[in-house]
Hints:
Bound molecules: fructose -6-phosphate
Oligomer: single chain
Helix content: 40-55%
Shape: globular
Number of strands: 9
Distance between the termini: 48 Å
Amino acid sequence: xxxxxxxxxxxxxxxxxxxxxxxxxxxxxxxxxxxxxxxxxxxxxxxxxxxxxxxxxxxxxxxxxxxxxxxxxxxxxxxxxxxxxxxxxxxxxxxxxxxxxxxxxxxxxxxxxxxxxxxxxxxxxxxxxxxxxxxxxxxxxxxxxxxxxxxxxxxxxxxxxxxxxxxxxxxxxxxxxxxxxxxxxxxxxxxxxxxxxxxxxxxxxxxxxxxxxxxxxxxxxxxxxxxxxxxxxxxxxxxxxxxxxxxxxxxxxxxxxxxxxxxxxxxxxxxxxxxxxxxxxxxxxxxxxxxxxxxxxxxxxxxxxxxxxxxxxxxxxxxxxxxxxxxxxxxxxxxxxxx
Length: 339
Ligand code: F6R
């Protein structure tokens, strides 16, 4: 067993603390929903503008919203955005150029708009245009602030009658997982999973509500553990990716598939997973399955998301890296600013 206690010294950016407080952050974040005025109600669809750790909130919202929600990770907004669209800009820093550009364009088409940010140019733009914005607490990495970027929206959509699921129930559902993932315990399941994925190339598979969660696993493994990882979703991958397994044994010997499962998976998806497991075994690609826990689809999806965050944290420690810094992202943003 790795010396987890010693490895924790690598966590100079205090990612462990941010992770351990996630259920309490959600409770605080639910309270921030009151910053989104009731007067914005009456929209027919919503567009979430954001990039990276901020944008993922839009993907999760989209899966639980009862009206159409599209996440836009781009400089421009879709042509159909109009006065009946709820425009939501999410940028933790408030400085992300793609999000700012799309938001500037969007508020010329709809006044039903809100931003979630710690400040920066996005907050300044909102002040200037008299658009409400939700003040997100500073001091986190954007991806570690997901509670504050997602839950005000889930709660607001629930208040407007546009949500499938009860966001208020999530903190209690996740506290049990938090307690079981803290490093004080003997080897816990997140640590065991991290060891299984150590020196592997994880390929994370989701379906429906777990599709954005699979993507979150991939990006958290990239950013926290500084490790390549990929994702795909069922049933789509059964129509293309599955063919690529043929040479996997030869060219992808480090690959490891992770199926994210819930008890709410579509019955045909369940069957597909069983068949895929057989195909993977025959092609020599190892796989594992992780099941979400909780009483509702929302709880199980967020349970899996939170578990993935823990796994990526422990994987970072095994890789000998501090989970917090994302130097290549900052370097790229710095170079773009110079141009
Ligand atoms: C860093 C992270 C990044 C940022 C992205 C956009 O932790 O997750 O993916 O989220 O570069 O920046 P923000 O969120 O400030 O708009």
